[in-house]
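Long-time lurker. I teach an intro course on protein structure, and each term I like to show students one example going from raw sequence to a predicted 3D structure in C-alpha cell notation. This year I'd like something fresh instead of my usual example. Would anyone be willing to generate the C-alpha cells for the chain below so I can use it in lecture? Attribution to the forum is fine with me.
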Amino acid sequence: TLGGLDGGTIAYKRHRSEARALRVGVTLDASAEVDFDNDADRERLLLSATALGLRYRRSRTPVYLYTGLGPTGQIVAQRADGGSGASTSVADLSLGLAGVVGVEWVVAEAIGVTGEYGQALLIGGRIGDGGDALRLDLRPRGARLGVSVYF
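-- Reply from a regular --
Happy to contribute to a lecture. Here you go:
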C-alpha cells in the first residue's frame, strides 16, 4: 500500500546516445508524525543529490528498460519531542552508491512516463553530538513514478 507521498525529486537528464544518458537530481522529503496518546511528535527532513549513468536497452516498441548506477549523498535532520518535554535533534550525513532499474514509456514525441525502483549503499554517521561510529547501510530508495519532458 502507499503509505504516503511526502516529497519530490527534480532531475535533469541528458541523453548522450540512444543507449546512454546522465541524470542528475535533487530530492526533498519531509514527514511528521504525531502521537496523541503520549503527547509526542517527530519531524524528519531529507535532502539528497544523485548523479546516475543510465543505460537503456534497445527496443522496437516505445517501452524502454533501463538501469543506472552512480554516486549519491544525503543529509537527514530529525527532531523528536517526548511527552515529558524532552526534545532531541540529530542530523546524519551519508555518501554512497545508488542504483536503479526502471521502465520508460514514450507516450508522445517529447513525453515519457517512467517507473523505477532504487537502492543505495551508504556509509555515514551522525553530525554534531560527537557522532556515532561510521555505519554501512543498504537502504531502499523506493518505487518512483515520473514524467520526462524532452526539449
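Some talking points for your students: The chain has no helices and seven strands. Strands lie at 7-15, 20-35, 40-56, 63-81, 87-108, 111-127, 135-149.
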